[in-house]
Amino acid sequence: MKTSMPKLLVARAMFPDVLAQLSNFFELELNQEDRIFSQSELAERLQGKFGMICTSSAKVDQDLLSKLSGVKIISTIAVGYDNFDLHACTQHGVMATNSPDVLNETTADFAWALMMATARRVTEAEHFLRAGLWTKWSVDFFVGADLHGSCLGILGMGRIGQAIARRASGFGMEVIYHNRSQLSEEKELAAHHARYVDKQTLLRHADHLILALPYSPEVHHIIGAIELAQMKPSATLINIARGGIVDDAALIQALRNGQIAGAGLDVFENEPRFHADFLGLKNVVLTPHIASATERTRRAMVNRAVKNVISAVRGELPPDLLNPEVLEI
Ligand code: DGY
């Protein structure tokens, strides 16, 4: 007699071969039309499930968890897990996992793509050309800022920040950073001799400032009007981290007033909605949260999320467990 399998909610559309692999371990509930579930629908669908594979769009908080019983693991396809209340997960006996590391290099590549596009006004120039406005070449035509020989500032020097810094060697850039704690000498050396500075020095000195820190309530609007006013008028600001780290309304003002030269943004407060005034600004490059979006990396992130749920159902320790305290409960 076939015993019933534990149930897994795959809350977002998934590669068919991955579903085939998961179906060896779980009875699956799918969402191949890739709808974003409301909190009440999520609670309904999670009833009776062993776990869920989700993305940053699923908010796993006290309210949701208090409506559930028997859920053992929530596995997100993302390195960032600000959508999880880890304390609540632990209280409810739920293991929370993420998919770190495999996206570091791809995300660092994209931070550079945004920085270069912003500094050299690539999308602004392309829109100009596409609009049929190109009639002549002039000496001050779309002049931007150099990257080579300039100062790269990085706020948040974790694995992605360090991968961003390493790339600066080919451009002969000075690298400065600010982080919760200073890196070891060895890590600073590997990160193109990155130099630890206080936040104010970072803001004042950087020609290009990249945000690569995780979101938490403590860093909400850590870049606001006061911080933007400290930056150079020629500086660019790049955010590949999370919306909410930057006060978007203050950034719009700073971009309008020429307080900084430009911004490259992959993430926004309340995305996928975003402040409509960004659309009226020429000096901002906007992308829809795609920094880790390459075929190979997204596959690797999914595989990591899958490994976490399979480990859990086998009674093994999920490799990316975020709340190991849950094992003591
Ligand atoms: C991540 O991995 O955190 C990316 O931002 C996708 O959510």
Let me know the CATH homologous superfamily of the largest domain: NAD(P)-binding Rossmann-like Domain
Count of structural domains = 2
Q: What percentage of the residues does DSSP assign to strands (E)? A: 5-15%
Structural class: alpha/beta
- Write out the distinct hetero groups bound to the structure: (2R)-2,3-dihydroxypropanoic acid
Query: How far do the termini sit from each other?
Result: 34 Å
Order of helices and strands: EHEHEHEHEHHEHEHEHEHEHEEH
Please, what is the oligomeric state?
A: single chain
Could you say what the CATH topology of the largest domain is called?
Rossmann fold
Quote the average pLDDT.
Answer: 97
The number of helical elements comes to: 12
Per DSSP E runs of 2 or more residues, the count of β-strands stands at 12
Give the second-level CATH assignment, the architecture of the largest domain. 3-Layer(aba) Sandwich
Organism: Undibacterium baiyunense
GO molecular function: glyoxylate reductase (NADPH) activity; hydroxypyruvate reductase [NAD(P)H] activity; NAD binding
Pfam families: 2-Hacid_dh, 2-Hacid_dh_C
Protein name: D-glycerate dehydrogenase
